[in-house]
Give the backbone structure.
Amino acid sequence: MEMKNERSFYYEKRDQFNDSIDTGSVDRRMQASLFYYLNRTCFNGLCRFNNSGHFNVPFGKYKRINYRRDFSIYMQKFKKWSFICRDFERIEIDGTGFFYADPPYDVEFTKYATDDFTWNDQNRLIRWLDRHDGPIVISNQATNRITNLYLDHGYNVSNISAPRFINANGDRSRAVEIIATKNI
Ligand SMILES: C[S@@+](CC[C@H](N)C(=O)[O-])C[C@H]1O[C@@H](n2cnc3c(N)ncnc32)[C@H](O)[C@@H]1O
């Protein structure tokens, strides 16, 4: 697929991607190519869908984008991986393997999907992780209630200044992120 860091081309491809969501009859290979292109070209690499399930991130502001065209180096690596897309509670937790959870950030107005990830979901996630005996790492926005929640569930926590801003439109202060670890 052709990839260009150009506004009109971007919106054309975004429409094409959203049409493929609407029709349901998709060429998966093409849809994956479109998603890669949109993800690299869109504003800040965001992944956001509106209530109709359409990808709605505007065109980005990159001077130059090095698009990858050859993904063969990943093929060997991913051979033994399974990619699953479903609610976390429907993923089987087996044994003592390493777990990294990167849930939607606990912050107002941040939406990664059609449905909001609510405070109840943040609690649901931590209770579900309590069933796992192996090492766990969780990252999130360092709000007070998230810090308290992770401490209450026996995690060690540390804060880092995230390489992103709270609000691209005005507030230029860096987001503070929490890294919570357990059984490590
Ligand atoms: C902060 S993003 C993770 C980004 C990812 N680590 C990456 O580097 O691309 C949060 C992710 O949680 C997913 N998510 C939202 N609700 C979920 C749920 N109930 N169960 C599992 N995943 C969920 C979203 O689709 C989104 O991809």
In short: The chain has two domains: 7-78, 88-182. Strands lie at 99-101, 136-141, 156-165, 174-182. The helical segments are 7-23, 28-41, 72-78, 119-129, 144-152.
